[in-house]
Amino acid sequence: MDAGELLAQYRAGERTFSGLNLLEIDLIQADLSDTDLSHSDLRQSRLGRSHFVRSTLAQADLSEALLWGADFTQADCPQAQLRDADLSGAVFVQANLVEANLVKAILCGVNFQEADLSLALLIEADLRPSSDQSTNLNRVTLQGANLSYAHLSGASLVEANLHRAKLCRARLGQGFRPDAPKTDLTGANLQGADLSYADLTGAILREADLRGADLTGAILTQADLSGTQLPDGIDLTLS
Description:
single chain; little secondary structure; elongated
């Protein structure tokens, strides 16, 4: 199915497009809200600024797709493949991304507020702020997610659930510029998280819960640890 046929069917009222081969399809600024695209092949597609509000993309393959500025508000995307996708400035507010694959995805300036990314893979993902907005992970669920080597400098993770998440060697430190935004983990749940060798330089960890977390080799220089619950044996004076 090509882009013209798909859009014509959508305008005619069709909403089920599951299991289709849509490889490299060009649907820039298209409105595909409330559609079922589960199990569809959308690899290397061009979907920038398109709308997938409340759509179902369960196990859809969007690897290497261009999805900058796309709107996935309340979309259902469990086990979606988004490896190497460009999602800069996309919106995933209250979206379901459980077990999604976002390895090496570009997620700069993405709004993940209240999204569920439990058990998702975000290894080497880039979550730094974009030129005009920060990456919003406030109150997001990342329980058990793998963010090893992810770039989270300047991201906002206020009250995020990172229980048992893997953040080994993740970059959460403030950038080199004096005016660079700080990574904000205020009130975050990091119980049992793997923060080994993570860079948390200048990060805001006020009221965060790090009980049981692995901080082996972690850098906490100038981090704000006001009211932070730290693992047993950690000495605040060393940070």
